Each structure stands twice: as structure tokens, then as C-alpha cells.
Amino acid sequence: MTTQSLTDFFRDKRAHAGGENVDWEKKRVEWVASVDELYELVVGQYLATAIANGSVAVSYRPKAITEDFVGTYEVRELVLHVGAETVVFSPKGANIVGAAGRIDLQGEMGEATLVLQPAGQWALVAQRVPTLRLLPLEEQSLLSALKDVMRP
Length: 152
Known about the structure:
This protein has helices at residues 6-17, 24-46, 48-52, 139-149; strands spanning 57-67, 71-82, 85-93, 101-107, 110-116, 122-127, 133-136. The chain is of the alpha+beta class. It has one domain (22-149). The relative contact order is 0.12.
């Protein structure tokens, strides 16, 4: 049996953690681009008809996020205006366990969570416990999430 000191143990753990080899600037740039691509999909495809007929209006506002290793950076929030009600797509960050990023949909009746999967696809968190269940982001899953966070 080999005896290992705590110092050796932690040095080995750090060497195998891989965090030192991450290009954090690249990760930030890719994350911000993914957020913008999501907004283009939501606004340009899923909400295009509702925007055109005046049922919903869209605006953007800046949000500062501070994350370990990445630092502080700016990303946009997407705000949907439906009459006197709003829903905000609020990015939380790229350093998310099990995902490449997270955005919360915030409405008057609650929140829903969108995660960017490592393969680059967005999904809605349908269930957290007892096991995580994700639904691919599509028009119908977005509609379901909006119904959950908006007034009836």
C-alpha cells in the first residue's frame, strides 16, 4: 500500500480537474452567442406571428453576470410584453452543473428553467426530482412553460 500525503493528494486532484485548461474567454463568447441564438429562435420563429399581429411585444435589456473563472460580462435579457404582463428570459450563466448554460423564464406566477445542453440544444426542465427530466425546446414546450409562469 502506497502512502500519500494530503499535499500530494490535492496536487493530483488539481492536475486532473482540467479547470486549468479551459479557455474561459471562449466559453463566455460561446455562451453569449448561444443566448442570442435562442432569442432569435424564440422571436423569429416561435413568436413571429404573435409579434406580427400585436399580441406580444418584445424588448431587450442588459444584464451583468459574474461567474467564477469567467469574470463579469454583459448579456441580454429578452422581455415579452403581453398586455400589462411581462415574462423575462433571464440568463443565469454558463457554469452550470450538467449543462452548458441556464436561462430562467420569470413570470408573475413562477419560473421555468431552460438549459443549454452540452450538444448545443436548448431544453426545458420539466422535472427536477426524483430524476431530472428535460423536454426539447419546441413551440409546444415553450407554450407550456409560458402557461406555467403567466397568469391564467
